[in-house]
Write a structure and sequence with these properties.
Layout lengths: L4 E4 L3 H12 L4 E5 L2 H13 L14 E5 L12 E4 L5 H14 L5 E4 L6 H4 L5 H5 L1 E6 L8 E6 L5 H13 L4 E4 L8 H17 L5 H7 L12 H7 L1 H14 L11 H9 L11 E5 L5 E7 L4 E3 L7 H6 L5 H9 L4 H24 L3 H12 L5 H8 L1 H7 L21 H9 L18 H7 L3 E4 L3 E7 L2 E6 L8 H17 L2 E5 L11 H10 L2 H19 L5 E4 L2 E4 L1 H7 L3 E5 L2 E4 L13 H10 L10 H12 L9 H5 L7 E3 L5 H14 L11 E2 L2 H17 L5 H15 L8 E2 L1 H16 L2 H13 L6
Parallel strand pairs: 1-2, 1-4, 2-3, 4-5, 5-6, 7-8, 14-15, 15-16, 16-18, 17-19, 18-20
Antiparallel strand pairs: 6-7, 9-10, 10-11, 12-13, 13-14, 21-22
Helix pairs in contact: 1-2, 7-14, 14-16, 20-22, 21-31, 22-30, 24-25, 25-29, 28-29, 29-30
Length: 773
């Protein structure tokens, strides 16, 4: 059992690994050359963006020390992770000292991204070698779920099992067993593709902006695409990986040789964000605004940004299915298709060629690229989407590939894995989709595949998860909540009450819900359809109250963005099982509105529930709810949502996103076994009335006078203050839940009629940004 962890090396990766172990609640020791170096490393980690810590106080779980005086403390730790500089001699020298300081049976691993795990253990004791393996985390460790596990022939299988189980459940990681080959699986495959793209840049055929536009979200890849991601990682890091692959795999020729302009950038120190410039450089404009310049690899100068002129990308955005979208772009007879055929095609062929050497299955290769680099489709999924013969026919001769054609239409030799498929007469590597890595993953998809959909419309579906648990799955764009979603929520409560033991509300999408359907609201507001808007709000309030007073326990399972109406849904569940990366908030003030689906009422109710006694001063408690809503505060993580009151003590967090719905289902069954009893509606909610209202309005006025908020911000603030104070009632009054819901609805309707609110909604829909006026 792993109760404590020591991380050796307080550099970028070591400090962030320690931070994530602390996120998981594990006491962690961070060591470097001396305590000052370790302290500085932890300080740098705390300043990083995105933040490696769930909450600021998590860092208190990390203690620091130095190799010079604290190695003896390793005997108190169950798992020791080496993460120092990528030099074999330095690692081996440190591991020799670790071997003498650790206790027998403790696990030791290396975070190396490319050095042979077996070689690093040369000369170590038998107990060390039995408890030794590679654990390659991906940067940033908090946000990327992949860990590659690399055992050696000496590694005890029980050690692999222990690390897999602990890293999966406690650290929230998805794990793949890799072979002890140069740079393992993910970096090996990814770098081959990167070098092909760099070659196209070197030839001057495409700009940096072109490459990033083509290889980003439109291709099912992260927003950072190629060049922005390289700047974040650092060209020096990429060069190290490339050098390692070139030296350790001489049979691959120039497959990993970086173009001359990259070498030039390295010589000049233009290695990415940490140096201030790489593929991109951030400059200050004449007016003080930030401008992003891009490098011209031919002239080696930075120039103002150039908007890509690639019409195919605009056309492809309308294609929702990523497989169809990639296929359309790949086969296009334009510059986009040309780039993909010149770079993606050889990358897929190379991956198929080396997979037997680096991985235990093609499924593992797809998973590492999904989990480690955020690809929506792994290499073999892309083979199937594009067509095996079509990929072979499109692949040009490229470094690392066998150039002799084996098929009449082929430009390269089909790798054995590909030839095996062709010889069998199959058209694809898989008949279905990539199978889940564990039974508890993708339980929604599994239920859908088994025809367990009970009811469905355009916004949501009811799905039987088995064991008496029904799920409401949102599936509109960004899971925005409209009338069809609300109808399915209400239908889910009724169906679960009649035929099921519990209800789970969740989905497999990146975001639980971005909030209510603003476009519909804007259209109704502009038409002055106030009765229709009133009905919409009443329907929303009825749906959330239905969740709260359901005959069966309702478990909400938010992940990613859980904003506005999405937040109001989870606030009314019996329990919440949130993903560690859940960003929860009531953000309606950003579009000139207030939460009216029960959110304002619920946050007030939660705040006053902490009153130590009935005659205590209400203002600090109401103020907390006012500031959380009025400042549109959003949690930076699932654990941070406790601080803001969006999660309660009885709610819980799942570290592994892929387990979230399974854990929510198990929680639902636990609530059934505990003897769930639906709550009684509160009838005596304390409100401060005129006194609280005056205090809140004074704060709003002072903020307006100080220029910190606009006229319209002040108007929205006064509407919110009216709700949270319960109106102009006498001090010490108690009100009912329906009374507060009525105040919500009235304030919401009045704000919908404000031209500035309508302008804010329109601006947000158009730009995704908040308009302050």
């Amino acid at each position: 059992m792993i109760r404590s962890i020591a991380v050796l090396g307080a550099g970028t990766m070591g400090a962030q690994i320690a931070a994530h172990c602390a996120n998981a609640g594990v006491p962690t020791l961070l060591l470097d050359l001396d305590r000052d170096v370790a302290r500085d490393g932890l300080k740098r980690a705390r300043a990083l963006k995105p933040d490696p810590f769930f909450t600021a106080d998590v860092a208190a779980r990390i203690s620091i020390g130095g190799f010079d005086r604290d190695l003896n403390r390793l005997g108190d730790h169950d798992w020791i992770i080496e993460a120092i500089v990528e030099r074999r001699d330095l690692k081996q020298a440190l591991l020799e000292k670790v071997d003498g300081a650790r206790r027998a049976g403790s696990i030791v691993s290396s975070n190396t991204s490319g050095i042979s795990i077996g070689e690093l253990a040369t000369g170590r004791s038998e107990d060390f070698r039995r408890h030794w393996l590679g654990t390659h985390f991906f940067n940033p460790p908090r946000y990327l779920p992949l860990v590659e596990i690399i055992p050696t022939p000496d590694t005890d299988p029980a050690v692999v099992t222990t690390i897999r189980e602990f890293a999966h459940r406690r650290l929230g990681k998805n794990l793949v067993i890799a072979k002890d080959t140069p740079n393992f699986i993910a970096n090996h495959v990814a770098l081959y593709g990167l070098v092909r793209l760099f070659e196209q840049l070197a030839a001057g055929r495409y700009t940096v902006e072109d490459v990033d536009a083509i290889t980003g979200p439109i291709l099912g890849r992260p927003r950072g695409a190629t060049c922005r991601t390289a700047d974040v990682v650092g060209l020096d890091v990429l060069a190290h990986v490339a050098t390692n692959l070139t030296e350790r795999m001489p049979d691959k020729g120039d497959a990993f040789r970086l173009p001359e302009f990259i070498e030039d950038m390295l010589r000049r120190g233009w290695i990415g964000e940490k140096a201030g410039r790489g593929f991109y450089e951030r400059r200050k404009g004449a007016g003080g605004e930030s401008e992003i310049y891009a490098i011209d690899p031919v002239s080696m100068t930075y120039r103002p940004p150039q908007r890509p002129q690639l019409p195919a990308l605009e056309s492809a955005r309308a294609i929702e299915d990523v497989r169809e979208r990639v296929r359309t772009l790949f086969h296009g007879r334009d510059r986009v298709g040309e780039l993909l055929r010149a770079t993606l095609a050889p990358t897929l062929v190379y991956t198929a060629l080396v997979t037997p050497d680096i991985a235990f299955s093609k499924d593992d290769v797809d998973r590492v690229m999904r989990w480690g680099f955020g690809w929506e489709l792994g290499p073999f999924e892309l083979w199937d989407a594009l067509g095996i013969r079509e990929v072979l026919a499109a692949t040009p001769a490229a470094p690392g590939l066998r150039a002799a054609a084996s098929l009449p239409e082929g430009a390269v030799t089909a790798p054995p894995l590909v030839q095996e498929v062709l010889d069998s007469g199959r058209a694809k590597f898989r008949e279905g989709t990539l199978p889940p890595a564990a039974p508890e993953f993708e339980i929604l998809r599994s239920a859908r595949d088994r025809q367990r959909v009970v009811k469905s419309n355009g916004g949501a579906s009811l799905i039987d998860l088995g064991d008496g648990v029904l799920a409401v799955e949102f599936h509109s764009k960004m899971n925005a909540i409209g009338g069809d979603t609300l109808a399915m929520l209400s239908a889910g409560v009724k169906e679960a009450g009649r035929n099921f033991a519990a209800l789970v509300v969740g989905n497999d999408a990146p975001n639980f819900s971005a909030g209510a359907n603003l476009m519909l609201l804007l259209l109704e507001s502009q038409e002055g359809n106030w009765e229709e808007i009133d009905l919409m709000v009443r329907a929303f309030q009825a749906a959330t109250l239905g969740l709260r007073y359901s005959d069966v326990p309702v478990i909400a399972a938010p992940a990613g963005l859980t904003l506005g109406g999405g937040c109001e849904v989870i606030l009314h569940a019996d329990r919440v099982r949130a993903a560690a990366e859940a960003y929860i908030g009531l953000v309606e003030v950003g579009v000139g509105l207030i939460p009216a689906g029960g959110g304002s009422k619920e946050l007030l109710l939660r705040s006053v529930s902490h009153l130590p006694q009935s005659k205590a001063d209400l203002l600090p408690f109401v103020q907390r709810a006012f500031e959380t809503i009025g400042f549109a505060k959003v949690s930076t993580s699932g654990p941070d949502a406790y601080r803001l009151g969006f999660l309660r003590d009885q709610d819980s967090v799942t570290m592994n996103r892929d387990r979230l719905l399974y854990d929510a289902k198990m929680l639902a069954l636990d609530r059934v076994r505990e003897g769930y009893v639906k709550p009684t509606p509160p009838t005596a909610i304390p409100v401060g009335g005129e006194g609280i209202l005056a205090a809140l309005n004074l704060g709003i006025h002072l903020a307006w006078r100080g220029g910190r908020i606009s006229d319209h911000d002040a108007l929205v603030g006064r509407k919110l203050a009216w709700i949270l104070a319960g109106g102009s009632l006498p001090h010490g009054t108690v009100v009912s839940e329906p009374y507060l819901l009525d105040l919500e609805r009235e304030a919401f309707l009045s704000l919908c009629g404000e031209p500035k609110t309508q302008a804010r909604i329109q601006h947000t829909l158009k730009t995704g940004q908040t308009l302050r006026h």
